[in-house]
Design goal:
CATH topology of the largest domain in chain B: Rossmann fold
CATH superfamily of chain A: Pyruvate-ferredoxin oxidoreductase, PFOR, domain III
Number of strands of chain B: 22
CATH superfamily of the largest domain in chain B: Thiamin diphosphate (ThDP)-binding fold, Pyr/PP domains
Structural class of chain B: alpha/beta
Number of helices of chain B: 22
Shape of chain A: globular
CATH topology of chain A: Pyruvate-ferredoxin Oxidoreductase, domain 3
Strand order of the largest sheet of chain A: 2-3-1-4-5-6
Helix content of chain A: 25-40%
Strand content of chain B: 15-25%
Strand order of the largest sheet of chain B: 3-2-4-5-7-6-12
Radius of gyration of chain B: 27 Å
Distance between the termini of chain A: 27 Å
Oligomer: heterodimer
Number of domains of chain A: 1
CATH architecture of the largest domain in chain B: 3-Layer(aba) Sandwich
Number of domains of chain B: 4
CATH class of the largest domain in chain B: Alpha Beta
CATH class of chain A: Alpha Beta
Shape of chain B: globular
Largest sheet of chain B: 7 strands, mixed
Distance between the termini of chain B: 52 Å
Number of strands of chain A: 6
Chain lengths: ~190, ~600
């Protein structure tokens, strides 16, 4: 197989890091060569986060090139737009888009404008767009924080990786008392239409 | 067993496997996680030093006393440690010693983009440059062997991508390396001129042997495929080149890069039609290759600045550019880092930014963000500790002005004053500077992600330790005007600034309140009772929509443009009350429990 290029993007505190950790652990179990690279700002809250995951038979570079991402998981709308030029532009690129907006400070202060037509812009550039309100779905499960695992579930389904034992991978990487909740969240993602 | 780990984690693992007994460093992106991970191995005594110089000096001592020892720092940290580094190369080691430098091509979180391979060349130390996590671990283990065999510290140069990327690593066992006996050897360890002259000769002799090693070691290798194009590269650039050229080019992959393998380079060049040198930042390999008389392309094509990426290689070699999406880029607004909600720096800089006829000299920490909107309250940042000494120099010159003299306010964090600010403050006190020094004491090293420091009460191993008293420290330097305030109380901030600006004498203001992200120690909970336990809300019936609260730059305060009212995100607010204090109509109220 050719190397798959995945990006996970959002803002600090949304759980992109745990989602990519679970993903890479599963990929390793499935026998792939995996590389991952994380770019985050400084340690203050709510900075932009971009995680590159590449897997295949043999992977060299840990970073995804512009226009070569097979799939972008966007945890936050503006961050999807910021990184949309990574998406392949041959009509095969997939975006999993979580309808959440976190205002940057410039928007908060009225200096910048948060783009109003983000979803349209993404739809125009993605071969396939899966948009969902992950936070609302997570709240239905009783904890808005498991939004990341719901998105991971959608990602796993889109990548056709359902055969990996994700429930065990969750159990190995998540605090015991949160394991059932995270497993439920994963199921919600896997079943998302 | 194989694991997916970062380069930093691999260095920590390598240190453990190599039998390291002592490790020291100072936090700095992208090196911080090296020592944090080393600290998880109980066999290694690890320490946060107050700066990179003291870290390296304690490593020198540990090596002389017989232990395999390691110092880890970011690139600019090696500037601070450069003084011991150069002479360490002269005196050599007892237990093996390795210095890790984590360089930052692209400057994700640094004040400059210097290429520390130049340090190895200048100090004549052997150097390794790993490409991925497996090499980081393997090369570190080998570096200790080289260090002991050739009686010299070894530099291991990482870059941000190597430090922070994860790749597969085969885990090994720990090799127990017994402490070597310490032998009193004045000629070896006392670098006075008479002793140091022969030391330099010794380095040169070992260097000749190391040239042989460089030509024959497994870290430098030629990979022949298509020989029309040959790439000479090191570090992560090898991975990017492989990605772009695949088997369509041959590679000379260099992992041991000081001294460089002359014979190997000449052999490779003789078989290749066209040679490109692909390296980040400086033409370190290229200059050497050119000096060997080999025709090549390098920095005449590739940029000297920024990260090397596959895209850069494609653009330079093949003229391939990905199409720029103008519609999209015009709409994507910046998300600059901001002070967190509840950050104790907010109140202080909110007020300081309103002051006129002052110059604010700043330093390195989260508070450097005060140079940006909405505070615009920091006018210089150079290097760790510079706020005070730079401010001191500026104040001396301002004092030469006839008439009204601008006052300098130097702002520095707790960890940064412990780092090198102490010397600066001593300098300003000794030279009777009319400086106002503000020590932003948030009780932790925050910017690099909550590392302990001499003010926090814990060591890196979370052992309880002494806590430095900053007031006493400052007073001992002879500064008579010292006040400690709560920076969340804006009236206190203002009154104290008036007090300091009203005097023609040096003063120190300590703003003392913990970082909002800090896991508070028992003594913090006692001192800062009720901190971060409250939240505030906006009473919309009172709010006049003046947006003064948004000018505090707090991420929890959101202005609702449709309703022309402010609101506070209850999930983010931790109750510092700064916005409530700036509200002219008392629309912002505490949520009563």
């Amino acid at each position: 197989m050719s190397t798959k290029n995945i990006l996970l993007t959002g803002v600090g505190g949304q759980g992109t890091i745990l989602a990519s950790k679970l993903l890479t652990n599963g990929l390793i179990e499935a026998g792939y060569d995996v590389k991952m690279s994380e770019v985050h700002g400084m340690s203050q809250r709510e900075g932009p986060v971009l995680t590159h995951v590449r897997y295949g038979e043999k992977v060299y570079s840990p970073i995804v090139e512009k226009r070569k991402a097979d799939l972008i998981v966007g945890f936050e709308e503006l961050e999807v737009l910021r990184n949309l030029d990574y998406l392949r532009d041959d009509g095969e690129g997939i975006v999993i888009f979580n309808r959440v907006r976190v205002n940057p400070i410039g928007v908060q202060m009225g200096k910048d404008k948060y783009p109003t037509n983000g979803e349209e812009l993404i739809r125009a550039r993605a071969g396939k767009l899966i948009a969902l309100d992950g936070q609302a779905k997570a709240r239905e499960l009783g904890n808005p924080r498991v939004m990341n695992i719901i998105l991971l579930g959608v990602l796993i389904r889109e990548l056709g990786l359902e055969h990996i034992d994700w429930n065990r991978i969750i159990a190995q990487n998540v605090k015991e008392k949160y394991v059932p909740l995270n497993q439920q969240a994963l199921q919600v993602g896997l079943n998302h239409k | 067993m194989k694991q997916l780990i970062t380069g930093d984690e691999a260095i920590a693992r390598g240190a453990w496997e190599a039998g390291v007994r002592f490790a020291a460093g100072y936090p700095g992106t992208p090196s911080t996680e090296i020592l944090e991970n080393i600290a998880t191995y109980p066999e290694i005594h690890s320490e946060w030093a107050t700066n990179e110089k003291t870290a390296l000096e304690s490593v020198i001592g540990a090596s002389i006393a017989g232990a395999r020892s390691l110092a880890a720092m970011k690139h600019v940290g090696l500037n601070v440690a450069a003084d011991p580094f150069f002479t360490f190369a002269y005196i050599g080691v007892n237990g093996g010693a390795v210095v890790i430098t984590a360089d930052e091509p692209g400057q994700f979180s640094s004040q400059n983009e210097q290429d520390n391979r130049n340090y190895a060349k200048a100090a004549m130390t052997p150097m390794f440059e790993p490409s991925d996590s497996q090499e980081s671990k393997d090369m570190l283990i080998e570096a200790f062997e080289i260090s002991e065999k050739h009686d010299i510290p070894v530099l291991l140069r990482m870059t941000t991508r190597v430090c922070h990327s994860k790749s597969m690593v085969e885990m090994g066992d720990r090799q127990e390396v017994p402490l070597k006996p310490y032998v009193k050897d004045i000629k070896k360890y006392v670098a006075v001129p008479a002793n140091a002259r022969p030391m330099k000769v010794k380095i040169q002799q070992h260097r000749e042997i190391l040239k042989e090693y460089s030509n024959n070691c497994r870290w430098n290798r030629a990979e022949y495929h298509d020989t029309k194009i040959g790439i000479i590269c090191s570090g992560d650039c090898y991975l990017y080149a492989r990605e772009v050229f695949g088997d369509g080019a041959s590679y000379l992959k260099l992992g041991f890069t000081n001294p460089l393998p002359d014979q190997m380079i000449l052999d490779f060049a003789s078989k290749i039609e066209k040679i490109y040198i692909i390296e980040e930042n400086d033409p370190y390999i290229e200059q050497h290759v050119r000096a060997l008389g080999v025709a090549c392309d390098g920095k005449n094509l590739f940029p000297l600045n920024g990260e090397m990426t596959p895209e850069v290689i494609r653009r330079v070699i093949y003229g391939q550019e990905y199409p720029f999406d103008e519609e999209l880029q015009a709409l994507v607004v910046a998300r600059p880092p901001t002070l967190c909600s509840g950050c104790p720096h907010r109140g202080f800089f909110y007020e300081l930014g309103k002051r006129k006829k002052i110059m604010v000299s700043g330093d390195i920490g989260c508070y450097t963000l005060a140079s940006g909107a909405p505070y615009n309250a920091m006018e210089t940042t150079v290097c760790m500790g510079a706020s005070i000494s730079l401010g001191h120099g500026a104040q001396q010159v301002f004092d030469m002005i006839e008439g009204e003299k601008p006052r300098v306010v130097s702002a520095i964090g707790d960890s940064t004053i412990f780092h090198t600010g102490i010397n600066s403050l001593l300098d300003s006190a000794y030279n009777r500077s009319n400086l106002i020094t503000v020590i932003l004491d948030n009780r932790i090293t925050a910017m690099t992600g909550q590392q302990e420091n001499p003010g926090s009460g814990y060591t890196i191993a979370r052992e309880v330790t002494e806590v430095v008293n900053i007031e006493t420290l400052v007073s001992a330097m002879g500064i008579k005007n010292v006040r400690t305030i709560n920076p969340n109380k804006l009236d206190q901030v203002n009154e104290t600034l008036d007090w300091a600006l009203g005097m023609q004498e040096p003063s120190v203001i300590i703003t003392r309140w913990p970082c909002a992200l800090k896991k508070q120690a028992p003594w913090d909970l006692e001192e800062f009772q009720g901190a971060f336990t409250e939240t505030y809300f906006v009473d919309e019936s009172v709010c006049i929509g003046c947006r003064k609260c948004t000018r505090t730059g707090c991420p929890a305060v959101v202005f609702q443009f449709d309703r022309k009212k402010s609101s506070i995100d209850p999930d983010k607010c931790v109750g510092c009350s700064v916005c409530a204090q700036v509200c002219p109509v008392q629309a912002i109220q505490k949520v009563e429990a």
